[in-house]
Write a structure and sequence with these properties.
alpha/beta, Rossmann fold, 6 helices, 42% helix
């Protein structure tokens, strides 16, 4: 069991293209005492993210159009209500995550390759929640 840090009050917004992945991440989060808010839809809007009032956003990079994800992240950082929201960006494409390392670092995101080790997943979450907007880290299996 991972260290509990008042997780029952921590809302984690999960946005992923794949329903099975969204469900899996939600189960992991619930099992650790977090309150997952799942949105298996794209595009997700800044307004929806604001409305969720999450403590953390886990966002799939989207292989079809990763620039849309970068645009969304840029808009999040320009918005006064969401600029400090910690974000974990994940993808099954390790090379794409590596290629976008600079922009994701500049946007204050943690990168997480899928499939991920559970310990890496929870370390990324803890880093984000402890540090607010963390420096980019690359967590891979």
């Amino acid at each position: 069991m991972h260290e509990q840090t008042d997780r029952h009050s921590k809302r984690v917004m999960v946005v992923d293209y794949d329903d099975a992945t969204t469900d899996f991440i939600a189960e992991l989060l619930q099992g650790e005492g977090f309150a997952p808010l799942c949105y298996p839809v794209w595009p997700v809007s800044i307004a929806l993210i604001e409305q969720a009032q999450a403590h953390l956003l886990i966002l799939d990079l989207g292989l079809d159009n990763p620039s849309a994800t970068l645009d969304l992240l840029s808009a999040l950082r320009r918005n006064a209500h969401t600029r400090g929201l910690p974000v974990i960006v994940n993808s099954t494409d390790d090379r794409l995550l590596e290629r976008l390392a600079g922009p994701l670092r500049d946007l204050g995101c943690v990168r997480l390759a899928k499939p991920f080790e559970l310990d890496d997943f929870f370390v990324a979450i803890q880093v984000c929640l402890d540090a607010g907007r963390p420096q980019t880290q690359f967590l891979a299996c």
